[in-house]
C-alpha cells in the first residue's frame, strides 16, 4: 500500500489536538486516501459530511437527513463524546451565517480538549477572520513519484482488458517460447518508458495525471513516445489556464540579443555546469542570475536570449500575479509556479520585476501582514536548495525595493548591471530591429543614427523605428535616415526624464555588480 503524500504531517496535526484543519483543494479523492491512512494509523473513526448526504461514516454509504444542514451538523458534533476525525466538505461558504460560525467556534473549543478534529475542504477555502485564527492551514502538495506510480499501475490494470482487444497489445503476457533475453529487454524498455512518463507527470495533480494517462492509453493503446508530447501539451494548457506563468517553446524563441558581451561569455562558461563532467566532480548546476538596471535596456530580452542560446524552453513568472486576496493563496500560487517549473526541467525560469513580489519584505512586511517576507523566505530557500535543473533569470528595475539579503553575493551565481547601450550595442540594436521589419541597414546612415541615439534605450530605439515606419507608410515614402532622425528629435528618452534615478542606479551598481558588457 502506498502512503499518500503528507500523511506524516497531517497525522502530527491531528495528534497535537488541532480542532480545525483547513485544506484548500478540489482533489477529494486524495483527501479521502490521506484521511483513511491517518485515521487507520491513529485508530480513529472517520466521518464525512456534505450538504447532500449529511454526516455519515466514511465506510457506510448512507444518508443522514438530521445532519444535512450546516447548523444541525455542528450542533450534533458539539454534543458528541466519540473521538473521531470529521471531514466537512464545502462548509466554508456557510460560515457567512453568524449562527453557523459561532457554532463552529464552540465545536472547536470542545475538540481542543479531545482527539477529535474537523477537516474542512473546498476551493477557494476562504474563512471568516475569527475562524481563520482558529484553523491550521494544511497544504496538499502535488503527488510524489510513489503516488503517481501507484496511480499509473492502477490505470494500466483497469484498462488492460480493453487494451488487449486493440491491434497494439503492450500488456500481453510473453509467450513461453519467447527468448528470455528478448522478454527481459522488453520488460526493461517498458519499465524505462514508465519511469519517463512518471517524470513527465510531475507538476500535475493526481486527477490531471490520471486523465492524461487514460487519454494516451485510449488513443495509442500503449504509452508510446507521443505520450510525452501529450503530457507536455496538457501542462502548457494548464499554464495558460492558471494565469501565473507564460510558456515560450524553444521553437518559437527567435529573439536576438545585441551586445552584452560579458553576459554571453559568462553564459558560455556556466553552461558547462549542466554537463556530466561537472556532475562527476560534484559540481551543482548554476542556480541563476539577477539582471538589474535601466528600464528598456534589454533585461527581458536577455532572459529570452539565454533560453535560445542554451536551447531550452522558457517559463515566465510575473511577480505581480502571485498576490491573491485569499489568505495563504499567494504562497500556494508561488509553490504551484515552482512545482510546474521543476516538472518541466531542464528549463529557464524568468521572474520578471522581482521587486514587486518582495518589496514589502524590507520593512518586515507589516503592510501586507508579512506576506512579502514569507514569499521572500520561500524563494530564498528554494533558490538555495532546488534539485531540478531550473535556471532562474530574475529581472528588476528598482534596486531600492529589493531586500539587501537578495543582493548578497551567493544568492545568485552572478548579478549583472544593465546600463544604457554604448555605440556598438546601439548599432547592433538598430540593425536587429531594422532587419526584423524588412529594412536594409546598409541603405541608411548608421553612423549618424548611432550618434543621434546616444542616451536612448533599446526599447526606445525600437519604438523610433516603428513610429518612423508608420510615418513613411502614411507619406507613401521609403524609410530614410531623415525620417528616423526626425522621430528621434521628437522623442525624450528616459536618460533625460529620469536622469537622477538612472545616475543613482549607476552609483549603486558601481563596484557591486558585473556589467553585461
Could you please describe the fold and organization of this structure?
The protein is an alpha/beta fold and 517 residues long. The protein folds into four domains: 7-137, 3-Layer(aba) Sandwich (Rossmann fold); 145-169 and 182-242; 251-418, P-loop containing nucleotide triphosphate hydrolases (Rossmann fold, 3-Layer(aba) Sandwich), CATH 3.40.50; 423-497, Helicase, Ruva Protein, domain 3 (Orthogonal Bundle), CATH 1.10.8. Helix content is 48%, strand content 12%. It has helices at 7-15, 28-42, 70-78, 98-111, 129-134, 145-163, 180-201, 206-220, 226-242, 261-270, 276-280, 299-309, 329-343, 355-358, 371-385, 423-436, 446-452, 458-475, 481-489, 494-497, 499-509, and strands spanning 20-24, 46-50, 54-57, 85-89, 117-122, 136-137, 245-248, 288-293, 314-318, 347-352, 390-396, 414-418, 514-515. The strands form two sheets. A seven-stranded mixed beta sheet has the order 7-9-10-11-8-12-13. β4, α4 (98-111) and β5 form a beta-alpha-beta unit. α17 packs parallel to α19 (481-489). The longest helix has 22 residues, at 180-201. The protein is elongated, with a radius of gyration of 29 Å. Residues 168-180 have low confidence and may be disordered.
Amino acid at each position: 500500500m502506498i502512503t499518500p503524500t503528507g500523511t506524516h504531517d497531517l497525522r502530527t496535526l491531528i495528534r497535537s489536538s488541532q480542532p480545525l484543519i483547513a485544506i484548500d483543494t478540489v482533489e477529494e479523492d486524495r483527501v479521502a486516501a490521506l484521511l483513511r491512512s491517518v485515521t487507520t494509523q491513529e485508530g480513529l473513526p472517520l466521518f464525512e459530511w456534505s450538504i447532500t448526504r449529511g454526516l455519515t461514516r466514511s465506510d457506510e454509504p448512507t444518508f443522514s437527513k438530521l445532519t444535512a444542514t450546516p447548523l444541525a451538523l455542528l450542533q450534533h458534533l458539539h454534543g458528541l463524546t466519540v473521538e473521531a476525525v470529521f471531514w466537512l466538505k464545502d462548509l466554508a461558504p456557510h460560515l457567512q451565517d453568524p449562527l453557523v460560525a459561532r457554532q463552529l467556534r464552540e465545536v472547536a473549543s470542545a475538540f481542543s480538549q479531545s482527539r477529535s478534529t474537523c477537516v474542512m475542504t473546498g476551493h477557494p477555502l476562504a474563512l471568516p477572520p475569527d475562524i481563520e485564527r482558529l484553523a491550521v492551514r494544511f497544504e496538499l502538495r502535488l503527488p510524489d513519484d510513489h503516488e503517481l506510480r501507484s496511480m499509473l499501475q492502477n490505470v494500466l490494470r483497469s484498462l488492460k482488458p480493453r487494451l488487449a482487444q486493440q491491434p497494439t497489445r503492450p500488456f500481453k503476457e510473453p509467450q513461453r517460447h519467447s527468448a528470455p533475453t528478448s522478454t527481459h529487454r522488453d520488460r526493461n524498455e517498458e519499465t524505462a518508458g514508465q519511469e519517463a512518463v512518471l517524470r513527465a507527470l510531475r507538476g500535475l495533480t493526481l486527477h490531471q495525471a490520471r486523465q492524461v494517462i487514460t487519454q494516451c492509453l485510449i488513443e495509442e493503446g500503449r504509452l508510446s513516445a507521443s505520450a510525452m508530447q501529450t503530457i507536455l501539451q496538457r501542462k502548457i494548457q494548464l499554464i495558460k489556464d492558471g494565469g501565473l506563468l507564460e510558456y515560450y517553446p524553444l521553437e518559437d524563441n527567435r529573439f536576438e540579443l545585441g551586445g552584452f558581451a560579458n553576459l554571453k561569455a559568462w553564459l558560455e562558461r556556466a553552461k558547462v555546469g549542466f554537463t556530466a563532467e561537472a556532475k562527476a566532480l560534484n559540481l551543482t548546476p548554476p542556480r541563476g542570475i539577477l539582471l538589474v538596471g535601466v528600464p528598456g535596456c534589454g533585461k527581458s530580452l536577455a532572459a529570452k536570449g539565454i533560453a535560445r542560446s542554451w536551447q531550452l524552453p522558457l517559463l515566465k513568472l510575473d511577480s505581480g500575479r502571485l498576490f491573491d486576496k485569499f489568505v495563504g493563496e499567494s504562497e500556494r500560487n508561488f509553490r504551484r509556479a515552482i512545482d510546474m517549473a521543476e516538472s518541466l526541467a531542464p528549463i529557464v525560469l524568468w521572474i520578471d520585476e522581482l521587486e514587486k513580489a518582495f518589496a514589502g519584505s524590507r520593512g518586515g512586511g507589516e503592510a501586507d501582514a508579512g506576506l512579502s517576507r514569507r514569499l521572500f523566505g520561500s524563494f530564498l530557500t528554494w533558490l538555495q536548495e532546488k534539485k531540478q535543473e531550473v535556471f532562474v533569470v530574475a529581472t528588476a528595475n528598482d534596486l531600492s525595493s529589493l531586500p539587501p539579503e537578495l543582493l548578497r553575493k551567493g544568492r545568485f551565481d552572478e548579478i549583472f548591471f544593465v546600463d544604457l547601450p554604448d555605440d556598438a550595442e546601439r548599432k547592433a540594436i538598430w540593425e536587429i530591429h531594422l532587419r526584423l521589419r524588412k529594412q536594409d541597414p546598409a541603405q541608411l546612415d548608421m553612423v549618424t543614427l548611432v550618434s543621434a541615439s546616444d542616451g536612448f534605450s533599446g526599447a526606445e530605439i525600437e519604438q523610433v523605428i516603428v513610429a518612423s515606419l508608420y510615418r513613411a507608410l502614411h507619406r507613401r515614402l521609403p524609410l530614410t535616415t531623415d525620417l528616423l532622425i526626425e522621430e528621434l528629435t521628437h522623442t525624450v528618452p528616459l536618460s533625460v526624464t529620469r536622469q537622477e534615478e538612472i545616475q543613482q542606479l549607476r552609483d549603486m551598481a558601481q563596484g557591486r555588480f558585473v556589467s553585461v558588457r
